[in-house]
Design goal:
The chain is an alpha+beta fold. The protein has 4 domains: 76 residues, no CATH class; 159 residues, Nucleotidyltransferase, domain 5, CATH 3.30.420; 180 residues, Nucleotidyltransferase, domain 5 (2-Layer Sandwich), CATH 3.30.420; 38 residues, no CATH class. The protein is built from 17 helices and 18 strands. The strands form 3 sheets. Strands 1-11-10-18-17-12-13-14 form an 8-stranded mixed β-sheet, sandwiched between helices. Strands 2, 3, 4, 5, 6, 7, 8 and 9 form an 8-stranded mixed β-sheet that branches. Helix 1 packs across helix 3, helix 1 packs across helix 4 and helix 8 packs parallel to helix 10. The radius of gyration is 25 Å and the shape is globular. The termini are far apart. The structure holds adenosine-5'-triphosphate and pantothenoic acid. The site of adenosine-5'-triphosphate has 21 residues, from helix 12. GO terms for molecular function: ATP binding; pantothenate kinase activity. Belongs to the type II pantothenate kinase family. Its main location: cytoplasm.
């Protein structure tokens, strides 16, 4: 067991920069040391209660949490700004000129204008403490999203969501899915092509082979409504043909787009549809869209109330409106991007992994023959991953006590298959799909946890369509973050899962862009 003196020395060594340790004379240093002593007493009590396997890691986690709280308290005082929505904003050829503001090297953004705007959140700071922000909606992750219809219309007006009175659409063309966001004003003389767009979108719930409208995610905003649609990116040539046939765009119309496909398909849009893509960086759009939805949809963000239990689906809303920076945003699309977000305009892509939603779908298609995501996740709901995963108990015959590994911990994902003469015997496609969900979800969560430790962040938001209506994955991620951080970090989830980039694209005329 580590002694009190050792722990005290370790804590100070970890937290105090070398220079300040040498001088250790200023009031600030004294204050810091004093606080550390208080934390130390608290930790000693915690150590006594919990007797963690790894006391030093436990201490470090606790300190990271404390530092993040202190940081939050400080940043709460700063006013939050959102990009000014200017109804006369530039579009088309002016997009390029506007791009020069971006600091391409760091991935950070130049500061926005600090001019106050209707989208600037007012003085309603909410507390950094979870209990002050949370709203018990008595929802489970399976329950309906009807409360999305509650709105904060006072923050933005319909004229600020349109350009010269006309609504726009925002596209996020990803490696697997193309997401569309559009705003429909309640009263507006729509131009003919815009009228056709909205008639086309609203008259159906499905489009072509894979397109669908996520009507449960629509929400009222100002004097209108946001709608969300997605289809498989591989259908893009067919989708462009359909848009042409329906006459949804004028010649030379500029469509706002982000994601890799905004680059890849630019020529096809131009040649087949006569449409110019006004492009924005995908991660910047992701963050802009997230900011907007957090500000305008009260129950956008939620967490699992009992992450210790893998099977407990109960969730609670969390009001992210208050300043809770810094946080991590982990976007699980085809691949995974991990961002550290320092404020509404400043972020860094600190890591990523190629093992993401695309890996899940690809392996599912190969191993289960499930052709689409919904079938694969539905099958997973009835699957039993322990029929394919090798557990600690499969190796030890019980727990591995020395290091606290319980028998039901997965020792090797898919490892049980190796133990069988006939790998396919007694397993269902649901078992495979469930194991893949766990394997990928838990792996991403573990990477996010490690990065969060490295960058001293305790709140991790998960987005992207891998989580789409997928409580199994969310549950696995929430459990994993809780497990690895010994309960000191929290996983948050978002109702509009994979649509943030398209919302950010919608607002491109009000922001800077990287090209036209
Ligand atoms: N209807 C669907 N069809 C295909 N995949 C789906 C579907 N719904 C959810 N998914 C999951 O969502 C993932 C794609 O997520 P998302 O749309 O956020 O990423 P993307 O933008 O296509 O990818 P990237 O950002 O890496 O370019 C898929 O890999 C799959 O795991
Ligand atoms: C390439 C992107 C950013 C495209 O959205 C995404 O698929 C991703 O973050 N992939 C992981 C790449 C990496 O290994 O960092």
């Amino acid at each position: 067991m580590v002694s009190d003196t050792e722990i005290r020395r370790d804590v100070k060594d970890d937290v105090l920069p070398r220079d300040s340790r040498r001088k250790a004379a200023s009031d600030e240093d004294y204050f810091l040391l004093h606080k550390i002593d208080a934390v130390f007493d608290e930790l000693r009590a915690e150590l006594k209660d919990h007797r963690p396997r790894d006391p030093l890691m436990f201490l470090r986690n606790h300190l990271v949490h404390k530092v993040a709280q202190a940081h939050d308290r400080k940043s709460r005082r700063r006013a939050r700004t959102f990009v000014p929505a200017d109804s006369n904003a530039v579009i088309g050829s002016d997009l390029k000129a506007a791009s020069s503001h971006e600091d391409g090297e760091s991935g950070r953004l130049a500061p926005e204008s600090t001019q106050s705007s209707p989208m600037t959140s007012s003085s309603d700071e909410s507390s950094i403490e979870l209990s002050d922000n949370e709203t018990d909606t008595k929802q489970t992750s399976e329950t309906s999203h009807s409360n999305l219809r509650r709105h904060r219309s006072h923050r933005v007006s319909a004229s600020q969501l349109t350009l010269s009175g006309q609504p726009l659409i925002g596209l996020d063309i990803g490696g697997t899915l193309c997401k569309i966001c559009c705003f429909e004003p309640n009263s507006c003389d729509l131009q003919a092509t815009n009228r056709r767009k909205f008639d086309f979108l609203k008259n159906s719930m499905t489009y072509g082979t894979t397109g669908r409208r996520d009507s449960a995610l629509s929400f009222d905003c100002a004097d209108g409504k946001f709608h969300f649609i997605s289809f498989e990116t591989r259908r893009m040539p067919g989708a462009i043909e359909l848009m042409k046939k329906e006459g949804l765009f004028n010649d030379d119309e500029v469509v706002l787009a982000t994601g890799g496909g905004a680059h890849k398909y630019a020529d096809l849009f131009a040649k087949k549809l006569g449409v110019l893509l006004g492009r924005g960086d995908e991660l910047t759009c992701l963050l802009k869209g997230l900011n907007f939805l957090l500000e305008h949809v009260p129950d956008e963000c939620y967490y699992f109330t009992n992450p210790k239990s893998r099977g407990d689906p109960r969730t609670k809303s969390f009001d992210m409106q208050g300043t809770v920076y810094p946080y991590f945003l982990v976007n699980i699309g085809s691949g995974v991007s991990i961002l550290r977000v320092d404020n509404s305009d400043s972020y860094d892509r600190v890591s990523g992994t190629s093992i993401g939603g695309g890996t899940y779908m690809g392996l599912c298609r190969l191993l289960t023959k499930c052709e689409n995501f919904d079938r694969a996740t539905l099958a997973a709901a009835t699957g039993d991953s322990t029929r394919v995963d090798m557990l600690v108990s499969d190796i030890y015959g019980g727990d591995y006590d020395s290091f606290g590994l319980k028998g039901d911990v997965v020792a090797s994902a898919f490892g049980k298959i190796v133990m069988k003469d006939d790998p396919w015997e007694g397993i269902t496609k649901g078992d495979i799909s469930r194991s893949l969900i766990n394997m990928i979800g838990i792996n991403v969560a573990q990477l996010a946890y490690l990065c969060a430790m490295r960058y001293e962040v305790t709140r991790i938001l998960f987005a992207g369509n891998f989580l789409r209506q997928n409580p199994l994955t969310q549950n696995a991620i929430a459990f994993s973050v809780h497990y690895w951080s010994h309960g000191l970090m929290k996983a948050f989830f978002l109702r509009h899962e994979g649509y943030f980039g398209s919302v950010g694209a919608y607002f491109l005329p009000h922001q800077r862009q990287d090209s036209s």
